[in-house]
Design brief:
Elements (H helix, E strand, L loop, with lengths): L21 E4 L14 H9 L3 E5 L8 H6 L3 E3 L12 E3 L14 E4 L10 H11 L2 E4 L15 H22 L13 H19 L5 E4 L4 H12 L7 E4 L1 H4 L13 E4 L13 H4 L8 E4 L24 E6 L2 E6 L9 H17 L8 H21 L1
Parallel strand pairs: 1-2, 1-4, 2-3, 4-5, 5-6, 7-8, 7-9, 9-10, 10-12
Antiparallel strand pairs: 11-12
Helix pairs in contact: 3-10, 4-5, 4-6
């Protein structure tokens, strides 16, 4: 895409106000992804407000297709979004299918490309080639710079769950990696299962694990705290770090003195590493499980440089071998799909007011900010691709 000049899409916000807004809920291609950005209840509200909504068939979605039909949506073929009408806004959560095809629509999803992650220039080049636009869900913010909707709480909650499941598995089986995990029907089923695992693991090891949560006061960190308490860990074993504890900058040797480390830091600028491979090799390390909820594995400023590959639900951990003890790392980048229905419902509730604003057209700050970010990053990508 070298030398591609970026042009503002012809169907920008100012052209939308007088027309019906057409949302196209696409199927997901990411393995094990069961969440959806809008549940049927949210769709019904949007349709009542004059929106048109098409929903692709998708057997793995946590909500059956017929519930969308009952809400007034038009059910269409799976993966048919490339042939959707030009004015449709294609709405998904995770990445698009691998392709070099130009993208002509406006897309709403987590693009993971505005912080210069791996493949960012190629993805933005596809939009430049087709005249489309990425409105990134991660960067929809209110006037105070806060995200209007995020899976952060559920990411922390489910990340802590997987971390404790790995710790329990290793205590009960004298080591080894957690086998494949599948979504839970609801939070109660998850916490009941982990309570049982913890009881068996504590019987085997003698003590509950000490869990340290970095970024403990943010949405994600509060989710991790919530899970730890709901499965019965005493407060004395839950160590909460946030800005105050980390203001001196890394590395942080104290992280090695806890069994489980849950990283909930949202990375927005370069920071020194929290841990290094050399630190992991030190004798006496207690740390045996690391959950990198933030999971910026391809970010050039990743503060956990050894967490450079992503894991998946069929193989949740990878081992870092350093010193006398293996460190089991969880780097799943869509943890909330372990509780897909509750995660989707919470996200849809938070996002709905911002989606409603699409019918106003131009001048809506949240959408104007998203558009400007896309334009700026596209220009940066084009300049670097020449």
């Amino acid at each position: 895409h070298s030398g591609q000049s970026f042009q503002t899409p012809p169907f920008h916000l100012s052209n939308m106000a007088a027309e019906t807004v057409h949302l196209w809920l696409r199927s997901e291609v990411k393995p094990f992804e069961h969440r959806v950005g809008l549940d049927p209840a949210a769709c019904a509200e949007l349709i009542s407000a004059g929106f048109k909504i098409s929903v692709e068939k998708f057997a793995d979605r946590c909500v059956p297709d017929d519930e969308y039909a009952d809400a007034g949506c038009t059910v269409v073929d799976e993966g048919s979004w490339p042939t959707a009408p030009a004015d449709a806004i294609i709405f998904g959560l995770k990445e698009l299918p691998e392709s070099d095809e130009p993208l002509k629509h406006r897309h709403l999803f987590f693009g993971h490309c505005f912080k210069n992650q791996g493949g960012w220039k190629e993805l933005l080049g596809r939009f430049a080639a087709g005249g489309g636009e990425l409105m990134d869900l991660e960067f929809l913010t209110n006037d105070h710079g806060q995200r209007v909707a995020a899976f952060g709480f559920m990411a922390g909650f489910t990340g802590a769950a997987v971390g404790l499941m790995q710790w329990c598995h290793a205590q009960i089986n004298n080591g080894g990696a957690l086998p494949a995990i599948t979504p839970f029907k609801n939070e109660a089923e998850m916490t009941t299962e982990i309570k049982a695992q913890l009881a068996a693991a504590i019987a085997a090891s003698g003590n509950p694990p000490s869990v340290i949560i970095m970024g403990a006061l943010g949405r994600c960190g509060r989710g991790a705290q919530s899970l730890c308490r709901k499965v019965g860990l005493p407060d004395s074993t839950i160590v909460c770090w946030d800005m105050e504890e980390t203001k001196g900058g890394g590395p942080f040797p104290a992280l090695l003195t806890n069994e489980v480390f849950i990283n909930c830091i949202y990375l927005s600028k370069p920071i020194p590493p929290f841990l290094t491979t050399e630190m992991l090799a030190q004798p006496g390390r207690k740390l045996s499980v690391l959950v990198d909820v933030s999971c910026d594995t391809t970010n050039p400023h990743n503060p956990l440089p050894f967490c450079n590959v992503s894991t998946t639900f069929d193989k949740p951990t990878f081992d870092v071998v350093a010193g006398e003890k293996v460190l089991s790392c969880v780097t799943i980048d869509h943890l909330p799909t372990l509780l897909p229905l509750e995660s989707s419902q919470h996200f849809a509730r938070d996002l709905l007011p911002t989606i409603m604003l699409l019918k106003i057209g131009a001048g809506v700050p949240v959408w104007e900010r998203a558009h400007k970010l896309f334009v700026d990053k596209s220009a940066e990508a084009a300049a670097q691709s020449v």
